[in-house]
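The methods section describes the discrete structure representation at length, but only in general terms. An entry of this sort, consisting of the sequence and the corresponding backbone structure tokens, reads as follows:
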Amino acid sequence: MDKKLTNVLVFLGVVLVFFAIVIYVLGKGEAQEGALFNFSVDQATVGLRFLFVVIGLLIAFAVYFFTKENDAWEVGTRQVVWMAIGAALYAVFSWLFNGTVFVVPSASQVALRPAIAIPMFFGYAFGPVVGFFSGAVGNIFGDALTGFGLSPQWSVGNGLVGFIAGCWMLFKDRKQSMNTVLYISGGLVLLTAILYFLNRNLPNMLYFDVDNGIFGDATISVFAGLSIVIGFILVLAVRFGFASNENVATAVMWGMLGNILGLLFAALSDIWINGYTLAAAIVGEFLPAAGPNLIFAAVLVPLLVGAYASVQRQSGR
């Protein structure tokens, strides 16, 4: 068997086993007061949640299968090290900015998730495999540290954010790939924004009242509904503002596509898992998560890419 195929299969198998242990072993336990981690998973829908974990991994494998000759699929010691670092950073920063450790006063219910820039950057810099692991495993541990319990399909969605951010490596022509990303992302932003305007009174499924422990009892704010449009405009500003710096432009554009498709996967899965309507999944979950993420992608990813480039120059690479 081809070594590259073997490595990818081993990687996907390890991730699958990890999620199986989390869902079917650790997820059965009740959250203990004062415990560092809460791995509890809703056991009523555990089968469907695991099914969407499998579907997410199959999507990743399908992309690999049709582009398997590309060097982006190398998985060696270097990639494993970056996986561990990326997942650890994403877990810690997700916990720090979950709205309970550092409470940020806000006129809206949108949680600040600047940590999303981490899987975007690790995917861009070190490839789709590293990006997937950083996003998926990092999100699992970040949620467990937060104590809210786990939604494994959302962790896989976060994995796809990093995975897709690294898929720029599969294209020979960067400019053409960014144009393709622009058209796909722009179309999805437009469709979801229209859906928001048609369903503005739906509750925001991601809203969490920290003081009262209440989820989903507020309608989505105008800022949350339009944040995906704002984020898209900011990403375009970075794309064309850094036209001479293809590294920054590529990282931000592909990070945007990863954010949109990864979180869309997670939100749509809740149509089957939680019985949501399409409108509820998009307006109540996708927009409050994906919109602010795009804003952070436009602001933070260029900083990370610039810092990484500086380190490479100093090390002579």
